[in-house]
Amino acid sequence: MLNTFMEMMSYPFMMRAFLVGSLVALCSALLGVSLVLKRYSMIGDGLSHVGFGALAVAAAMNAASLAVALPVVVAAAILLLRISGSSKIKGDAAIALISTGALAIGIMVISMTTGMNTDVYNYMFGSILAMSSEDVQLSLILSLLVLVLYVFFYNKIFAITFDETFALATGVKSNLYNTLIAVLTAVTIVLGMKMMGALLISSLIIFPALTSMRVFKTFRGVILNSAVISVVCLIVGITVSYVYAAPAGASVVVTNMAALGIYSILGLIKKKCRS
Fold first, then answer.
1. Distance, CA of 2 to CA of 141 (rounded, Å)
2. Other beta carbons within 10 Å of 109
């Protein structure tokens, strides 16, 4: 096992995958707890479809993928909040409206330009080979920025997660911090899309939080455990992907599924011991 790991680390693309993947997994886990508790977890899936549409347009224009996708997905996240908060279109309907529209645009652009090539396949299903050196540098900067902002505004995020009405009554600008969560989620989604794929990136947001909630009941406990689970599952998933030549995104998701099963069993044992 150690020899396999050392062999993996001898390849620059594997080091990039571990480095960027771990940071993206960490950001996803932290944001995922709030999104799951607020019953807004599918925002990740919706924004990933928007990201796919943006990446398809970038590929057709021969433009830098992250430079195009980031502002588009961030704008979509803000628009999503505005639509669901100020009109008759709520929650899942707003997500479906924006995500399917963006996905349709991406497919139309692909069909009329580049066709279903390797780059498009990687955008949909992920590839550890898809991360360039430029992508890594930008991903590191933005991931660290997401982590710093999350830690700095942790108390506000905690307040609007559990009781947004009370937080608003105490002077917390809930709309501002909801927008912050959406923007940070959008950035994280875009950073992880190349490795996880548009169809699977939302799993990094949903699985760690749900897994931790099987055993832990406090917000801080769920946050810390989600961060650990997310990073560990990503490392194990990428290792499985390397050893068995499987898609990276799918390997990480299957690893998260296994972790959810184990924690569910531990949660049942814990509940029985208490009773």
1. 30
2. 20
What confidence score (pLDDT) does residue 228 get?
94
CA distance 71 to 94: 19
From CA 157, how far away is CA 180, in angstroms rounded? Answer: 9
CB crowding 139-177: b at 16 or more within 10 Å, else e? beebbeebbebbeebeebbbbbbeebeebeeeebebeeb
DSSP three-state, residue 242 = helix
Both tokens assigned to 88: 């008759």
216 three-class SS: coil
pLDDT digits 0-9 by tens, 8-36: 878 888 888 888 889 999 999 999 998 88
Furthest-apart CA pair in the chain: how many Å? Answer: 62
pLDDT at 126 over 80: no
Q: Which of 177, 199, 250, 265 is CA-nearest to residue 49?
A: 199
Query: From CA 188, how far away is CA 16, in angstroms rounded?
Result: 16
DSSP letters of 119-139?
HHHHHHH--TT---HHHHHHH
Distance in angstroms (rounded) separating the CA atoms of residues 195 and 200: 10
Contact 235, 8 (CB under 8 A): no
